[in-house]
Design goal:
about 625 residues
């Protein structure tokens, strides 16, 4: 506004601006100082500046735990039973920009509630929340109901998911968790404690209670080709309870892959792992450095490759009703290895499994396993020799399995006692031990421990006869021995270990073994047991055999027809991959055999198979029967 002369302005020009309130005229552009008063006398040309104040809305935006409906604020559910008060300062009350809020006892907002903390009485409680700016105000009615009863808080994987309310003496509803059944599985149990060790049974509303549910995560990635679990990443921050199922989509789960090991986003909240029966193996270091892991369930006979649960400081409980097999130590730097109560004679135990030793707790001389011990970890004693001299080990007549390299390089170890129960051993369990290096322990270039064939001289050739009374052949005993022409197995043999007669790589020195005749006593042929024995012509399997492992006869491409006994219940992937020139005759009902995908080969190496039928089938299909004691395919 510009003017000249000395005549005064007698009235205040009041401009209009939508959304703003005119505050007066100012002589400075920054609107400092007081506005001019009228009448206003000018003595020279002057510029006046209009002052504006934005008209702010007075409204309630949100309150934690309440729903806002017009001018009414209602709590979504009744306030917690028996609560004496509510502090609204803790409810994250949000109002419009520039506004302030306060609580009052009356609708006219003349009686403020001190510190915005309301006192509750049983029944409906009404308060008034006023939102104010310099130019506006709004009053909201707040209704809170207090019940004379109790709550049941429902926690799922450590997160509060439901709050149930019941009157005194009534019964709380049994909560039913809601989850994606393709990713999660409820174990069906309810507990009173966060550790989920004590069952919850009393649903009577006689106190405020908490209930804890365990929802297992089962949404693991899976490859049907190799029957291997690869990994899983729940995306929230809830506690993780992982369950590896026995099958996915009707396909057996056999192996847990080590790709879990670097999945730290997933592992950071992992509290428990449940591995179902039927899973056979966990790869190296899969679950190491799980900082919160406290409990693991393992199936009977599981093979732990090495370092799987190492550096899990809170792991104190491992549940396993059977034998744990291992090729290396798996529980170092865990709550189990640090708990003195788990030690006996310098070794620490998980149930009946000797998981490792602490040389500082051992004494020289004879080492005796804890009473009832059934399996010993791979590499369990491999570092003992430099610290403690053990000259004898008593297996207590209960140990059935000794892991790979368990007593490796124990040069002072000369003898074993209590070996009657021993039926299975991993690779080189006694390599370079005093027992191994004592020539008098060898028979015809073969080394035995109890009823187990442990090792063979590397230059073995010609005919090999395994002595009567032998129950098992340890892993890799005859691996890459290419000069063996025949093997005579005793009728006491039950187990042929993994890679027992495996030819790892074919080159000019090809194997010369011509025939494999297994006695009826054999129940299991391990993984890769006869892989790449390409000179073999005859493979004879007798009734009584139950398991043919992964790649057990893979690469026996010159074998003639193979009759699979009716007692066989399991054939692993590529277990009978013997080339297209062979034929497989299944003597039993195919529906009773667990056939892992590609059990009879891949692509051009697919070995044809036939199902047994004593009578000529009316329908088409691949069927066979005996003619003069030999398999003949039915012509249909």
């Amino acid at each position: 506004m510009q003017t000249a002369g000395s005549a005064p302005f007698r009235t205040n020009p009041s401009p209009k601006k939508t959304g703003f309130l005119f505050q007066g005229w100012y002589t400075s552009s920054d609107l400092s100082g007081d506005p001019v008063t009228f009448p206003y006398v000018l003595t020279e040309n002057t510029t006046l500046y209009a002052g504006w104040q934005k008209i702010l809305d007075a409204s309630l935006v949100s309150i934690d735990g309440f729903s806002i409906q017009g001018t009414q604020v209602k709590k979504d559910t009744a306030v917690l039973p028996n609560a004496e008060s509510i502090d609204f300062n803790e409810l994250n009350v949000k109002v419009s920009e520039g506004a302030e809020w306060a609580l009052y006892e009356d609708e006219s907002c003349t009686r403020p509630i001190e510190n915005n903390i309301v006192t509750l009485e049983t029944g409906a409680n009404t308060f008034y929340l006023k939102v104010s700016t310099q130019t506006k105000s709004a009053v909201y009615t707040v209704t809170v109901e207090k019940k004379d009863g109790f709550t049941l808080e429902v926690y799922e994987n450590g997160v509060l998911k439901q709050t149930l309310v019941a009157n005194k003496g009534d019964v709380f509803e049994k909560p039913v968790p809601v989850f994606d059944e393709t990713l999660y599985e409820f174990d069906g149990d309810y507990y009173i404690d966060h550790d989920m060790t004590t069952p919850f049974t009393d649903y009577t509303a006689n106190a405020n209670k908490q209930i804890y549910l365990k929802i297992y995560y089962i949404g693991v990635k899976f490859s049907k080709v190799i029957n291997t679990v690869h990994g899983a990443i729940p995306t929230n921050d809830a506690e993780v309870y992982l369950k590896i199922p026995s099958e996915i989509g009707g396909v057996p789960v056999l192996t847990i892959d080590s790709s879990f090991q670097n999945d730290f986003v997933f592992k950071k909240n992992l509290l428990e792992i449940y591995i179902s029966d039927g899973v056979e193996e966990i790869k190296n270091s899969t679950f190491y450095y799980c900082d919160k892991l406290r409990k693991v369930r393992l199936p009977d006979g599981i093979l732990l490759r090495g370092g799987i649960f190492s550096y899990c400081p809170l792991l104190t409980e491992v549940e396993c009703d059977g034998i744990i097999r291992s090729s290396s130590t798996n529980f170092s730097s865990t709550g189990i290895s640090k708990d003195e109560s788990n030690y006996e004679n310098g070794a620490f135990y998980i149930g009946t499994y000797l998981a490792g030793v602490d040389t500082s707790k051992m004494t020289a001389g004879t080492f005796r396993v804890k009473e009832g011990t059934r399996s010993i970890s791979g590499q369990a004693f491999s570092n003992v020799e430099s610290k403690v001299k053990i000259n004898s080990v008593d297996l207590g007549n209960t140990v059935k399995y000794i892991g790979s390299y368990a007593f490796d390089r124990m040069t002072s170890l000369l003898s074993f006692t209590g070996t009657d129960a021993l039926t299975s051993m991993g690779t080189d369990a006694l390599r370079d031990s005093g027992y191994y290096n004592t020539s008098s322990n060898w028979e015809n270039d073969l080394l035995y421990l109890g009823h187990c064939l442990v090792a063979a001289k590397s230059d073995l050739s010609g005919e090999v006869t395994i002595k009567n009374g032998t129950v098992s052949i340890a892993d890799s005993v005859f691996k890459d021995m290419r000069k063996i022409t025949s093997v005579t197995f005793p009728d006491t043999l039950e187990i042929i270990g993994n890679e027992a007669f495996c030819i790892g790589r074919l080159y000019s020195g090809e194997p010369v073994l011509q025939a494999i005749h297994l006695p009826a006593s054999v129940k299991k042929v391990g993984e890769y047991a006869f892989e790449n024995q390409i000179a073999v012509r005859e493979i004879t399997l007798e009734e009584g055999l139950e398991t043919i492992g992964y790649c057990a006869f893979s690469g026996c491409d010159n074998a003639d027809d193979i009759i699979v006994p009716s007692t066989v219940k399991y054939i692993g992937a590529l277990g009978l991959c013997c080339g297209s020139n062979s034929a497989i005759y299944l003597a039993g009902d195919i529906s009773s055999i667990k056939l892992i995908k590609d059990w009879n080969g891949l692509g051009v190496s697919l070995t044809p198979y036939y199902e047994y039928s004593a009578e000529k089938p009316a329908a088409g299909g691949n069927y066979w029967h005996y003619v003069d004691g030999k398999p003949v395919v039915w012509e249909i």
